[in-house]
From TrEMBL:
This is M18 family aminopeptidase. InterPro entries: Peptidase_M18, Peptidase_M18_dom2. It comes from Zhongshania arctica. Belongs to the peptidase M18 family. Its cofactor is Zn(2+).
Amino acid sequence: MSNVKQFNKNLCAFIDASPTPFHAVEEMRVRLQQAGFSALDERADWQLEPGKSYYLIRNGSSIVAFRCGKTPVHECGWRMVGAHTDSPNLKVKPAPELHRQGYFQLGVEVYGGALLNPWFDRDLGLAGRVNYENASGQLCSTLININRPVGIIPSLAIHLDREANNSRSVNPQRDLPVVLLQSTEPKDFRALLAETLAQQGVSDVAAVLDYELSFYDCQPAAMVGWNEDFIAAARLDNLLSCYIGLDALLTADNSEHTVLVCSDHEEVGSQSAVGAQGPMLESVLRRIAGSETAWQRAIANSMMISADNAHGIHPNFSDKHDGNHGPLLNAGPVIKNNVNQRYATNSETSSLFRRLCASCDVPVQSFVVRSDMACGSTIGPLTAAAIGVKTLDIGVPTFAMHSIRELAGSQDGFNLSKVLAGYYQLKSVVDSDRC
């Protein structure tokens, strides 16, 4: 494991290179490959070996990486960490072209629970997956990242909306179309994509058929604050946890059965073929186990840590927190609790995590939402319900969650990675003795 400064440098580089889930999974794939992990094909027969490491990708946007331990998995189970690759954003519509007042704009849909006001007056790049037909009539797919300011959503001047500072709301259909260029001639967005792909070296595009493209803030991740106490970046929720889990997995040795799963579509409910409410993780674990009995025994010996960002107590809005449960940035990872099972934490899983943190000399905090406020959720309860594994919900405290740019402590990611690396090396996550 690197030191804190190197960790944060690598984290920022990872986030900057990952404007979409497709790019995040590709970045993780490269790092896993470099660390000796072998790619698996779900359509093929698997020949897994003890002590070896593997990964598989589904849809290009979800990934499962795992190490096969030295002992049979049914005897010791899996040490699992889960995160998600997606973040709230603005996605380009299938027929997005708008020609108004001499401006060419693209219509967008809001993906997830985005905080919309910060999207105005930002330099926006465009990235995602493009599917096309090549010159030979074959269906092909490629990633695209236009990492320069190709779009902007200008605010309405305060002179034309005198109540803007008191009550400006955002109508996604009317207010969010992105300005791309000035033109009196109609433009075809798919034709523009084909031209851009050609400029990026994809020269065999006969016709762009479809795409999954998102706008994103071109401003790179940065260390901020007088003493660089903070990391400011887009998509900290939840690329921060993806990177922490990956760093911990690569740091830990290969003695135990360990899993990192980073799923798409958490921000919209996880109900998809590649989401946490889908069958991806269970199907992988069942194939590793080899039989129904081995699967059942392995799950009984396993644990999942769901890592997703937590709400740090904001100094300007401290009344939004329960007085005894206001996590501070740079004060340790947060155990997330909810009696209504919006988080899957229970006293056994939280106790194990507290002991882990103590053994790594890392402080730990707790979060409970105010009793008069609704509680968000994570992949934790979904995974616990889907495969019956005991689960803990934790996360790094952040500000401005779901904004176009979020804020986290510069110490917290490194500290949580240390704890998760220790967790990956635990001989057992089951307490055999009950006092």
